[in-house]
Design brief:
Helix content is 76%, strand content 0%. Helix 1 (2-19) packs parallel to helix 4, helix 3 (38-45) runs antiparallel to helix 4 and helix 7 (148-181) crosses helix 13 (280-296). The chain is mainly alpha-helical and 363 residues long. It is built from 16 helices and no strands. This is (African queen) hypothetical protein.
């Protein structure tokens, strides 16, 4: 289990950096967690990869991923809820979710084909991450019993940290899957397309970029993705886009240039496994793009080629682009409609937390 200890310490150190230096200064060290903690016992005794060839040679990797995910959630809950944290309830839920994980692995094993190895590994990691987020949210609801106002604040704070923490673990272990097992993401069409779009904005005037954001803003309201957001998240998204489209005090091109750097960092990570220390919002942008890349990975290359042809005409001439933005949004909506409910919720959670900490950080 040395790999678990080493990477586990790395991830927990990253979590500490994200959530303040006191974050992992809880009752046990990472060494205790790996060597003798009940989380490790529960995960290892579940024999998740027994009779499952999909993870026969990667059993330790799967166990590490689960141990660090569970430990991260445990640490977040324990550090915020404190004495009200019900450890036995956590362990009971973890045992239940080990059965769910085993089912996820069994389904991947059944569907796996030689040309879909990468897809099913990334899919499995995302499904597990989504289920652990689900488990954590259930625990939050059960553990927080106090006055409504304080409970609401704590739930929001916990959700933010859980979504950020699990996203960090998923990203770290995707990188390890590539470095150690040579199972690397090859298809990242959404990330590449967004990078191309953001690069193109650099050559346009501020007015033209604002006009594009305005068309996007209007198209988004008619999309199925927007209709799936809760009222608060939808409002926060509206505030950001409204400022970028209409407020002369908002440096729209500068903001998009910052996003472009985050997108380029993801491309560098996928090409060279070069990790950078990321802020909360940057990590969530990468997590959102990772999900979207995965959803589109089953399609042919360059799914947005037609849009860019029209975009290039619009960039240099006086032609309409709003119809083509709407078509892209409609296509994305159709894509998300085919995604399983747990992965859809995972994506919405990431978007929601990104907007919350961008509009008005709570922690």
């Amino acid at each position: 289990m040395e790999g678990t200890l080493s990477l586990g310490k790395d991830v927990m150190a990253s979590l500490s950096h994200f959530f303040s230096n006191s974050f992992v200064n809880t009752r046990r060290s990472m060494t205790d967690i790996v060597e003798e903690d009940s989380i490790t016992d529960i995960v290892r005794s579940s024999l998740l990869c027994r009779d499952i060839s999909f993870c026969k040679d990667t059993r330790l990797f799967v166990e590490e991923y689960l141990i660090v995910l569970a430990t991260s959630i445990h640490t977040i809950l324990d550090s915020i809820i404190g004495n009200d944290f019900k450890k036995l309830v956590f362990e009971s839920q973890l045992k239940h979710y080990m059965e769910i994980v085993k089912n996820i692995l069994a389904i991947a094993n059944k569907k796996l084909t030689e040309d879909k190895v990468i897809y099913f590994w990334i899919h499995t990691m995302k499904k597990i991450c989504a289920k652990f987020q689900e488990m954590a949210m259930i625990l939050v609801e059960e553990d927080i019993q106090m006055n409504a106002e304080k409970a609401q604040f704590l739930k929001k704070q916990l959700k933010q940290k859980i979504v950020i923490g699990t996203a960090l673990v998923e990203m770290k272990y995707q990188t390890k899957l590539c470095v150690v097992y040579d199972i690397c993401v090859k298809s990242y069409e959404v990330t590449k397309s967004l990078s191309t779009l953001l690069e193109s904005f650099k050559l346009l005037s501020e007015v033209k970029v604002r006009l594009f954001i305005r068309h996007f803003y209007e198209a988004l309201f008619d999309s199925s993705f927007y209709s799936n957001l809760d009222e608060v998240t939808a409002h926060e998204l509206q505030v950001i886009l409204n400022d970028m489209a209409y407020s002369s005090e908002t440096p729209t091109k500068e903001l998009l240039s910052t996003v472009h750097k985050v997108v380029e960092a993801r491309i560098a990570l996928l090409k060279n496994n070069q990790e950078e220390k990321l802020s909360h919002d940057a990590l969530l942008v990468q997590a959102i793009l990772s999900d979207m890349d995965h959803f589109y990975s089953v399609h042919k290359a360059d799914p947005f080629g037609d849009f860019f042809q029209h975009f290039n005409y619009w960039a240099v001439g006086d032609v309409q682009i709003n119809k083509h933005i709407r078509l892209v949004m409609k296509d994305i909506g159709k894509e998300l409609w085919t995604v399983s409910n747990d992965l859809s919720i995972k994506l919405v959670n990431e978007v929601q937390v990104f907007l919350e900490i961008t509009i008005g950080p709570e922690s």
